[in-house]
Amino acid sequence: MDNSQSMSYNAGQAKGQAEVKKDQVVDQASNAMQSAKESCQQAGQQMMDKAHGAADAIKDATGMKK
Q1: pLDDT in tens, 40-58
Q2: Rounded distance, CA 64 to CA 54, Å?
């Protein structure tokens, strides 16, 4: 293999490794975003449940719940 072929091979190797690394970073970011989304949805559901419970408690205390 001459010097030109060796340089071309090395450039191809570097490009392939960079693409793999980029894909890994994108996957990690996507996973982090999905996790954050799920956490927000869970927190929102908990807030709604607490608000519903508070409304029921007020209804019970005021005799409005039938």
Answers
A1: 999 999 999 999 999 999 9
A2: 13
- CA 3, 19, 17 angle in degrees (round to 5)? 45
Are the C-beta atoms of residues 9 and 1 closer than 8 Å to each other?
Answer: yes
Q: How many helices and strands in the chain, by DSSP H and E?
A: 1, 0
Q: Whole-model pTM?
A: 0.61
Cβ atoms within 10 Å of 27's Cβ, excluding its own: 10
Answer for the pair 65, 56: CB distance below 8 angstroms, yes or no.
Answer: yes
Going by C-alpha positions, the residue among 33, 51, 52, 31 that lies closest to residue 41 is 33
